[in-house]
Prior knowledge:
Elements: H1 13-21, E1 40-41, E2 44-45, E3 57-59, E4 70-73, E5 92-99, H2 106-112, E6 116-117, E7 123-130, E8 136-145, E9 151-155, E10 162-167, H3 168-180, E11 190-192, E12 200-207, E13 217-226, E14 250-251, E15 265-272, E16 275-284, E17 294-297, H4 305-309, E18 312-315, E19 332-334, E20 338-344, E21 349-354, E22 363-364, E23 366-368, E24 377-382, E25 390-404, E26 410-413, E27 419-426, E28 437-440, E29 444-452, E30 463-467, H5 468-480, E31 493-500, E32 506-509, H6 512-522, E33 526-535, E34 548-555, E35 560-564, H7 567-576, E36 580-589, E37 598-605, E38 610-614, H8 617-626, E39 631-640
Parallel strand pairs: 4-7, 23-29
Antiparallel strand pairs: 1-23, 2-22, 3-10, 5-13, 5-16, 6-7, 7-12, 8-11, 8-13, 9-10, 9-12, 14-25, 15-16, 15-18, 16-17, 17-21, 18-19, 20-21, 24-25, 24-28, 25-26, 25-27, 27-30, 28-29, 29-30, 31-32, 31-33, 34-35, 34-36, 37-38, 37-39
Amino acid sequence: xxxxxxxxxxxAWGAALALLAGCGGSGTEASAQKAASVLMVDGWVQPAxxxxxxxxxxxxxxxxxxxxxxxxSLGALDASKTATLGGGIGPRQVGTARDVVATRAAAQxxxxxxxxxxxxxxxxAAISFSAEGAYGLRLGVVVKALPQGTVLRVYSQxxxxxxxxxxxxxxxxxxxxxxxxGDTTLDGQTWWTPDTGSDEATLELELPVGADASTxxxxxxxxxxxxxxxxxxxxxxxxxKINESASCHLDATCYDTYATERNAVARMLFxxxxxxxxxxxxxxxxxxxxxTPYFLTANHCISKQSEAASxxxxxxxxxxxxxxxxxxxxxxxxxxxxxxxxxxxxxxxxLLQLNDTPPAGAVFAGWDAGTQALSTPVVGLHHxxxxxxxxxxxxxxxxxxxxxxxxxxFQCSGTTGNYYQVNWTQGTTEGGxxxxxxxxxxxxxxxxxxxxxxxxxxTTVPDYYGRFDVAFNAALKNWLSSATPPTGxxxxxxxxxxxxxxxxxxxxxxxxxxxxxxxxxxxxxxxxEGPIFYAYPVEGSNQDSNLFPVYRLVDLARKxxxxxxxxxxxxGLVRAFPTVALEGTAWWGQAAPGNGAMPVYRxxxxxxxxxxxxxSAAERNYINANLSQQYLEEGIGxxxxxxx
Length: 644
């Protein structure tokens, strides 16, 4: 920071600084609730105060005027390609891959992007993709380079007032996390847009003032064509699509005994290999009731980070009244994917952490990690064929060993093993039910659905569930039970980044409340760029001698923040500038490499006299190649981590 510099200030920035100065850098967490024992945890309800109503869905009236898009038409899908899809054991396929020649590579996509100036001095362009007969489209966007401050939007031309918006940097971060997880395939390089629910989807890009459009490296080589009707009608829009699953399924809304547990279950939509699938997953509590959105499903549904990143979830996806054959207006959709924490084929189980905050009223289900007695009454809550929530009632009959014989078949035998054999007395399961939880007595999760031959015409044929207790002892305890010293997970938390659209500065916080405040109250000025790295929270981190605090300072006169792990720099700034105040410790990192930590590079922006921090190799390469006259690289500021 230098004396005598000229500083610019956005309209909302003064109010934002006043609010943020009082927030400090420390993280917040839901109040802890002691578990009944290390092997058993009760459920916990998401309070309304946690769900701040923060959303990527924006009103077009608050954004730049919609540009006239170039158009790419794929025509109708050959019906023979879907004739054998959607059935069988495993996740239910509802979408299929289609190649897009017109935007296969970045050079071709650039030809489709017809840039127009915005009222604020930036640039905007859009491409409309359509596929005759599709019930929905997911665009497979491959992003390799974008100017800082780029915003991507997705919407349908038929409903252009409802826009999904995400920063280009957050898309790059998601793709980079796929690579860090070892997925360097085309799937790993792809960001899948939310399903538009129509046969057309528009991808819009807005560049900030001064950005060079020629540096945009983006392509859409594939789309996922949704061939099943997954629309979500309201109570006023009776649809024959709803309740298409088999006739013996039981409407979960009719069973108030399980009113709590049914709020823990979500319908899943995810994409793999450009094909889109349905499964069922369940939100899980941990022993501290921390509110961390752990989400349990099957390994045969999601087993790779790129699949987890594509996840959409539908919450409270059920009828409003018993057997009403309509969808509750309380249904809520989340579209921002998840991080894959653990996946194992041995008991067909996967644990994710959702990127979105679950909606108010969602239940973090309880679980029991003890081995269950035979003849235990059990309950299944699931979405067969993606239908409204159903319930199945039955009995745990035996332990058993199961092995796959093909991608969609398996065989089970014996009286020991990693699976439970379950027989239903009422209800059944179908494709789409995969990954759904098995509840002991309807209250505590003890397994996830692998598969089976049960149906309305074969009610005595069993289903098979991966054993939660086996997965818990193998790995899940590291996330779900604070009484067990973690061996794999670390307790690190995400650090979130914002870009001030006036070009003032980037802002960083590990405080979820502070993040939501900026998104909700200052979203027009602050572009949310998502979690960019992970560090240790303020509370409890000083017990590790390898960690050092990263301090956050604010200069209210110069309208900027600075982050440093150097106490000498911290003290020198406070002494030299009366308007500089120490807000406290923002998070804990390392002052040197080791323990898997990666460097955070610090840049000084000569144009705005602010500082910028990044761990991203792609972002650093872009700055050094295209913006070296504007950004001065100052070296490594501190060390953090790429994941939890």
